[in-house]
Amino acid sequence: MKKYFPLLLLSLAGLFIQSCKQENGCGFGTYDYLLFGYFYGECGGEQCIEIFKLEDGHLFEDQKDDYPYGFSPYNGRFKKLEGRKYDLVSSLPSLIPDLLIQHPDTVYGQPDAGDWGGIYLEYSVQGEVKIWYLDQMKANMPAELGGIVDHVNQAIEAVH
């Protein structure tokens, strides 16, 4: 049995890697889509609201740039971007902290209260939509959420 144990571990690792390739994300399993972006209310121009959508192995950018509010799914008008840009942000769903997954439809901090902006996340799993608003001022939120704020901002910068 001892001599087969490394082979068993290798086989299990191979199955895990294969399942990650078949799903839209690892860590939280499959997802229908992920919307991510930032918003600034006291701002002028196209760069004030940036919302993107990851869905079915593609990245889309919202063309409406509406200020997100409430806990209804964001009603955007999305344009598909080139595949290379998807590759830059495809790992984002796996970076969503457990704290968010366990507490859907939640506001952390005071997003955009002092004109410092906010982060919008919308995550759909098997038709169940979860929405979060995060403060860009990380000091206003639990420490474990600072990383996802950084990841969203970096993802938006990478695709622009």
Description:
The protein has 160 residues and is α+β, with helices and mostly antiparallel strands. The protein has helices spanning 5-22, 83-89, 98-102, 146-159; strands at residues 33-39, 49-55, 58-62, 78-80, 106-108, 118-125, 128-135. The chain has a seven-stranded mixed beta sheet.
With helices defined by DSSP (H or I, 4 residues minimum), what is the helix count?
4
DSSP strand count: 7
H and E order = HEEEEHHEEEH
What's the helical proportion of residues? 25-40%
Model regions low in confidence, pLDDT < 50 over at least 5 residues: 1-27
What is the mean pLDDT? Answer: 83
- Rg over C-alpha atoms, rounded to the nearest angstrom: 18 Å
Structural class based on helices, strands and sheet pairing? alpha+beta
Largest sheet: 7 strands, mixed
Placed side by side, the strands forming the largest sheet appear as 4-3-2-1-6-7-5
Short key terms for the protein model shown above:
single chain, 160 residues, alpha+beta, seven-stranded mixed β-sheet, 4 helices, 28% helix, globular
